[in-house]
Amino acid sequence: MILEEANIKDLDYEEAYKTILRAESTGLNRAFEVAQRVLCIQPHPDDTDLAAGGLIARLVEGGCDITYVTMTDGSIGTFDPETYPEKITSIRVSEQEEAAKILGVKRLIWMNYGDSSLRPTMDARNRLITVIREIQPHIVLTNDPWLTYEAHPDHVATGILAVEAAFFAMFPHVNPSDVRAGLRPHVTPFIAFYWTRKPNVYVDITDYIDRKIKAVAAHKSQFPPERFWETENSLRVHSRLLGKKIGVAYAEAFKVLSLKHLHCCPYTEDL
Ligand SMILES: [Zn+2]
Predict the structure, then answer these.
(1) Distance 136 CA to ligand 1 centre (A)
(2) DSSP H helical ranges for 62-84
(3) Rounded to the nearest 5 degrees, what angle is found at the Cα of 204, between the Cα atoms of 271 and 139?
(4) pTM
(5) What is the residue extent of each domain of the chain?
(6) Distance of CA 46 from the midpoint of ligand 1 (Å)
(7) Which secondary-structure segment (H or E) carries 142?
(8) d(CA 16, ligand 1 centre) in Å
(9) 240 CA to middle of ligand 1, Å?
């Protein structure tokens, strides 16, 4: 819907603002229904499964192609000083492979930056731009880098890098070697964030919660089997809460935006 001045001219501020939000939001709630390829850019092995495993299982069942890009090597993910970081990395790769099998994720890409020290560098951004041009996704799914009180630098950096890469992948003079190598610049229609403070799309995962929990349980190094009930319980509590928003048993919540909402747009927070 294209909004014209005449549409808001005679409205008061509140009504005019609501009208603009409605126009800007058009189509966002259908993003997951129309997507055929989704690129999930996550800080660590397990983040996508935890935050969006139900959505992923649902998308796969609908015939969608899913790729995970994991930014860091997960090498600090242990409390045991005797286990070497290299060992943790290899364990976490196999755990993510196992979880991907459970959810039906087709492809895993590993960026292997150091766990806990990811920064939004040009190197990382350019590598992501190349991946986006290879995959040509309809949606880039990542964690919301603007989540209030998020302290983990890998999470903040991953969200920022994913957004910047999606934004610049459309410009042929950015990373021009891609284009010379035959890759096409790409406009990603939607960016979707999980672990977000103001979600605008809720997805019914009632039929997929068990598969999601099974996928999360595959990350045994992070969620030891003897205490997995705690993780399962907290996932069920949170999904149950979100389900209440749309009148279903279990849901996941996302903030879905278009690229135009991620640059000089004063409405984005309220969309
Ligand atoms: Zn993480």
Answers:
(1) 25
(2) none
(3) 55
(4) 0.96
(5) 20-264
(6) 7
(7) strand 139-143
(8) 39
(9) 22
Question: Ligand 1 centroid vs 173 CA: distance in angstroms?
Answer: 32
* Alpha carbon distance, N-terminus to C-terminus of the chain: 15
Distance 56 CA to ligand 1 centre (A): 17
Cα–ligand 1 centroid distance for 72 (angstroms): 9
Among 244, 52, 248, 38, residue whose Cα is nearest residue 144: 52
Regions of the chain where pLDDT drops below 70: none
Q: Alpha-carbon distance 268 to 24, whole Å?
A: 9
Reported as a single tens digit per residue, the pLDDT across 191-208 is: 999 999 999 999 999 999
Residues β-bridged to residue 128: none
**Helix spans in the chain (H):** 5-8, 13-25, 31-34, 47-61, 85-103, 122-135, 153-168, 176-180, 209-217, 228-246
CA distance 89 to 86: 5
Superfamily for the 20-264 domain: LmbE-like (3.40.50.10320)
> In terms of C-beta distances under 8 Å and separation of at least 24 residues, what long-range contacts does 244-250 make, across chains too?
245/202, 246/202, 246/204, 248/204, 248/206, 249/206, 249/209, 250/54, 250/204, 250/205, 250/206, 250/209
Which tens digit of pLDDT belongs to each residue from 35-78? 999 999 999 999 999 999 999 999 999 999 999 999 998 887 78
